[in-house]
Design a protein that fits this description.
alpha+beta, Elongation Factor Tu (Ef-tu), domain 3, Beta-barrel_YknX, elongated, OB fold (Dihydrolipoamide Acetyltransferase, E2P), 40% strand, six-stranded antiparallel β-barrel, MdtA-like_BSH, 37 strands, 4 helices, 5 domains, single chain, 17% helix
Amino acid sequence: MQLMKTRTSGDIPAEKPKKKRRPGKKAAVVTVLVLALLVGAGFGAKALFFSAEEKIALTEFTTYGSLSNAIEGTGTTLPNNSVTVTTASTAEITGVYVAAGDTVEEGDLLYTQDDSELDDQIEEYRDEITDLEEELEQSYEQLADLQETMAELTVAAPFAGRLTEVDAEEGDAVQNGAKLALLVDDTKMTLTQYFSYAYEDQVYAGMTAGVSVADLMQNFEGVVTDIQKVERITTEGTRCFAVTVTVENPGALTEGMTGAGWLLSDSGEKIYPAVEGELKYSATKTLTAGASGEISAAAAMAYQKVGAGETLFVIDGSDYETQMTSINKKITQTEDKIAAYEDKIAETEEKRADYAVTAEIPGKIISVGVREGEKPRAAGQNAVSIYNLDTMTITANIDELDIDSIEMGMDVTIVRSGAEKNSTYKGTVTEVSYEATNSSGVAYFPITVEIASNGELSAGVNVSYYITTGDAEEGVLAPLAALKSTSEGTCLFIKSDARPENAVDLDEGVVPDGFYAVSVEVGSTNSRYARILSGVERDTEVFTRYQNAAPSNGDTTSQGDGSDEMQQGFPGGDFSGQMPDFGGGNMPDFSGGGNRGGSMGGGFPG
C-alpha cells in the first residue's frame, strides 16, 4: 500500500516521483525478518491477553425425602368456650354455691341475688298501665259520642209526609238541637174521644167509627186504631177511657178541626162519646239539627211533600272529622304506651334469671367475685367465670411467605413441654385472617388453631405448634439447578465412570466432560427441589453449573458470568433461556428460596 502526503497551500512543492526499481536481494531478507517479528508478536499478545479460562463443573447430589415444609412457633392457650357472668344490680347476694376450681354442668346454680327490686319496678309499671287504661276508656267514650254526632250530620225525613214549616236553609250556622223543619203525615187524621166505661166491653180496635166535621159539614168513616184505658172523669162524674179513631184525609182536613164521632157497635147501634176531641195529623215530627255547624246542603221547602228517608239537610262535618282523627291518634298512642309497659313487665320478669344465675356451659370455675351477704360495688361486676377446658385455642402468626399454604381444617401438632416429658395434642386450623399485622418490616397473618385437649390444658399455657405444608410424599429429590432442558427433554447430567444404560446423546459441548445426560420424569417441586419419578437414583452426583477459574494474573476469583451460567444451566443451543419442561403442568416454586417467619425446612429433604 502506497502512502501519499497531501500538500496544503504554502507548502514546498512535492518532489517528482523517482523511477521505480526492482527490489534487490537485501530488501527481500528485510521483509522476511519483519514478517517473522510481526507473527511472533501476535502469538505473544494472544498468550498474554487471551489465554483460555478453565471451567469448573459444580455438582450436588440427589437425595431421598419429601418436599414438605414445616411452619412452627409458639402460642398461649385460651378456652374455646368461656363465660363470665356479671351482677345484675347492687342488690345483696343471698347465696353463693360454687368456688374456684369446682366443676359445673350446664344449668347448675352459681349464686342468687335479692330480686325484690324487680317487684317494685313491676308494680310501678302496672300503676302506669292502670292510669293509661282510664285515659283509653275516656277516649273511646269520646269517640263513640263523636260517631253518634257525625251520624246526625245528615237530616232525613223519618216518614213520608208534608213539610208544614221550614226554618233553615243552606249556609245557615245552626247549633245542636236547633229546629230545622216541621214534618207531618196529613194523609190520615186522628180523633181521640173519651167513652164511658159502660161501653168498655163493646169497644175494640178495628171496629167501625164515624166522624162528623162541622166546619166541612161532612161525615167521614173511620176505624178504631187505639184504646187507652185511662180514667178521665167528666163534670158529670162519668169515668171515661180514650179511644182513637183514624180517618182518611181527602185533603180538606186540617189539624184543630172539631170532630164529633161515634162508634158502631156489633148490634148496629151508635155509641157516642162523653167527651169529643179535635182532629190531629196521624204523625208529626219536628226535625232538629243533631250537630252544630254550617248547613252545607238543604233540599226542603214549606208544604213540600217528601218520602220516607229523603235527605233534607246536610251539616258540614269537617271539624268533627278532625276531632275524630285526633281521638284515634290519642287512642293509638295510649295503646302503644300500655303495650310498652307490658313489654317492660315481661322484660323485668325475664331479668329474674339474672338474680338466680346458672351455668350456661359445662366447665371449670376459674374465679368467683361475689360473697353471700355482701352487696356488689356496681351493677355489671364480674361474679363468676367458667372455662370449658375440653377445647382450647391458640393464635399463630404466619409469615406472609407461608400464609398461602395455610388452609381451613389443616392438622396442627401441638406440643406442651414438661419437666419429664412433652405432651402432644392434635389441633385444627379453624380461622384464617387475611389482614396482615406488620412487625419490624415483616407481615404476619393471624390464624386460630383449635386444640382437642380434653381438659388437660389450662388457660394461659405456652405451647408450640407445628404445621406441615406441601407434598409429604417421599421420593428421590434433585436440585432444581440440576434440571436441564434439552433436545431429548428434561435431563440430569450425572457424573459416572461408565455410560449409564438410560443415557441420551446430545450435541457436542452440551454435556461436561465426565458426565452423561439421562432423561428423567419430574413430579412435584418446591422452591429448591424436584421429585424425580424415574431416571435416576438417590445419592447420584449431578452437574448444576460452571464456575470459572481465577484469571491468570491472580487478582480476583471469577464466579462465572450470568450469561454463561444460564447457557450451561439450560443447555442445548435452541433451549437457551427456557425453563425445563416438567410435564403435567408442574413448575418449580421460585418465590424466594428459604422460608421466613417461623418456617422450617424450606424444602431441605431428610
